[in-house]
Design goal:
alpha/beta; single chain; 207 residues; globular; Nucleotidyltransferase, domain 5
Length: 207
Amino acid sequence: MKLHEPLQFCMRPNCIEAGCDEAGRGCLAGPVFAAAVILPENFYCKKLYDSKQLSEKDRNELRLVIEEQALSYAVEICTPREIDEENILWASVKAMHKALAKLSIKPEHILVDGNRFRSFNNIPHTCVVKGDALFMSIAAASVLAKTHRDEYMKRLHEEFPAYDWASNKGYPTLAHREAIKKHGITEHHRKSFNLMEKQLEINFENL
């Protein structure tokens, strides 16, 4: 694991702050997952960082620590159908709202990874680009969303092994796109996404 600057605990001291992040926005298949996490004031974990920068082993270990020590956490999804209806950005926000609604403690401030969000229950929020590399609560949400989603895609792989979701987790790898060409799509694919690579065609008659 690369060395990184220590994460900040919070943006607003003396405030119940929930961090939110999602996983799976760029996938061709599977739900988008979002997590909301409220950490205790004395929480510290040296390994905690943006989940994309961590090994699978570290993420899974951190998940246990976060779920054991968080004051409250929740993980929710938006289905491929919701993604197709809402678009992926707002489906991701909707999944965050679902997670926030499941928290057993009402936050006084919400920290969101990224630059777009819709107000939730009139609670003040702040969007932070690359916030999962800056704030503990967002990084914790990043880890939970990623590990829960990976676990889900591995289960789906047992039902649809041709798409290699245990390995690619629904992302647009060459093997995944080739499987779509060969076997078609499933109910877990996002129909609003470009599921097939478009090949450049040259019309020689117009040259």
